[in-house]
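Inputs:
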Amino acid sequence: MRELRNKNVIQGLLAEIKKKSLSLPHPLKIMEVCGTHTMVIHRYGLRNMLSQAGIEMLSGPGCPVCITPNEIHEAAIKLVTENKNFILTTFGDMTRVPTRKGSIQTTVPKKGSQVKIVYSPFESLNTAKNNPDKDVVIFGVGFETTIPAIAVTLKYAAQNNLKNFSLLSALWLIPPPLKAIVESKENQIQGFLYPGHVSAIIGAYPYHFIPEKYSIPGAITGFEPGDILMSISSIQNQIIKSKPKVDNTYTRVVKPNGNPAAVKVMGEMFQKKHSHWRGLGLIPNSGLKLKHEYKSFDAELKYKLNIKAKSQDLPGCRCGDVLQGIISPPDCPLYSNQCTPDSPQGPCMVSYEGACLAYFKYEDRDRD
Amino acid sequence: MNKISLEMGSGGKLMRDFIDKYIVNTFSNPFLNELADSALLPNNIGFTTDSYVVDPIFFPGGDIGSLSVNGTVNDLVVSGVKPEFLSLSLIIEEGLELDSIKKILKSVKNAAEEAEVLITTGDTKVVKQGQGDKIFINTAGVGSVIARPSPQKIRPGDKIIATGTLGEHSLAIMLAREEFGIETNAHSDCAPLNYLLPLWKKGPLWMRDVTRGGLATVLTELSDKLPYSIIIEEDKIPLSSPVQAASELLGIDPLYLACEGRALLVVAEEKAEAVLSEIRNNKKGKKAEIIGKIDDKTGKPGELLLSTLSGGLRLLEPLTSELLPRIC
Amino acid sequence: MCLGIPAKVIEIDENNQGKVDYLGTKVSTNFTLLEDVKPGDWVIVHAGFAISRLNEQEAQETLELIREYSKFTENIRDEK
């Protein structure tokens, strides 16, 4: 599918988008919900070209590192700094988030304990199997793309009665913050790029309320530059025809009813809970926790972490407004002053997908 | 911040700041202040040193022994110095198997022969178990200056050449440490760059080996000093399949992956094709490509820009902190 | 939050564990989330799990659609 990166293809799609922009609100504000889309846009230098074609891209809250409250990161740090013979397994970019206790990356574990970076939750499981004398926690962070994998992993752990394994969860659902965004009086988003791999799991129906109740167009989108441009073009068509819907330009992967088996295993292991989203506040039924029968695998209960998550940012940080697409990174007073990739003040500058880091690192330039 | 963090050794901005603030400030002199890969001293002597703390000590394509020779040799070559003599200092952790030492020393010997350098002096220390990670090696290298790099002669239109595929060393090390469930035939590109020495008379104005921080970090060090911008064409950057695959799987940018046997050259425009041919004639350089040029029409002076596969343009910054795999 | 790549299934065992191939690199993958996976199938792999299939026909249709755009660009260049 590498043709979807091809210069000619991209330029051709951009030309068509530009042509249609002439008869549409200018600029058209489109939110890419998913952090991976933010990465792709910046990596290929699309933002500036889209801006010239009449499209303003706004980065949304689909960045688990960005919206996970500080208190949960601090709990992870606490686990590995206060317990002996402890292995904290985590995905890569969770380790850079700055907290009042430093970051996981700069933390010094207690003697005999360590932080282990993993690519797959199964590596955490194997770590637990191979180290029966150590406590192993998986710092499980993600949206519906990752949650089924974590669910399967926990299910294996439960079936095999792996007593030294547990989950510190920061699991988030995509539809609830979208609902919060479209319901907000300050909403300026005129179209949504829906996350392709979340949609591969949950299908298209969870987004239907957006065009049906709020008349906002959108398209389920894959992760090549061509996918993003095809979706933007679809959004323009929906506006031109006054027929907002949930289009799908990622048909090679996403089916309208998603992956029922994945949804089923999520439901077997987890139940919904009200969660605090950094920058967005408390959103009902927007997170997940392990069901009661699996509580022995819940690290928060097992280690009595008593996490009181809030949505408060570090002083002055406007990550919340950036996440909702209300301002763009340079509008935050801390951006590029006190808040830089080397000394990030808030999550948007930490995560590789964070809107502020992506903007800073991949800042586009006009070719001409 | 009053303690040294691991980040300061990672090759990113924190390390550069540390060097500026504590090393240059303390020892400032015209030779040191260049912060070049080698110091070019009076009487046409070139001099450099490097320490090697790689983990694991044995990896596909090399080991700490071959690394300790090639790394230092290459720092001399890219500075216009013919490497001649090395020192070899070993700091060994109590309990390391003798077989490992023998293996490492054999690697040092083979690498030194290939790079045509003599190990002439050195030191051996043993530290208590737990106070040194198996073995640390320091090598210093000295040789005769055969050419003076002349970055001041760089002009718009001059070309950037990469001598081969990028990032394999870093990838091999990363996967040797943590497999991440990935199997590839990536192996370190650890090799001497002596074959580039004769080229100094034929066009190159500047050379660097692409070590810590990768292509992006090395070229920003150059672009920072120029009144022009540098534009790299993404579709010209040579990348092997394992690096392409692993970087997409793990979400790591190959422009920041280090090599230990690859160089970047800036060559005067009219001589670039000829230099490229010569590099390609050597089997170590057969995948060399012209990957970019010096520019005065695009971007601002001092910028390193990537013209992406899709025709967009993005600014490349130096590495800020250690690259880690992501799932997002 | 969606880093996933299309890869070809090489092997799968009775525990739904196996390997996929991506550009010659092999990745340990768990297939519990999909049904009836066979070697030769194309899947999307995220965090060591196959989360969806890649529909080859739809992929082909998408490619044909975008190839139309690359022709479009060439026309614009010719007109200049």
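The mean pLDDT of chain B is 93. Flag for discussion at group meeting.
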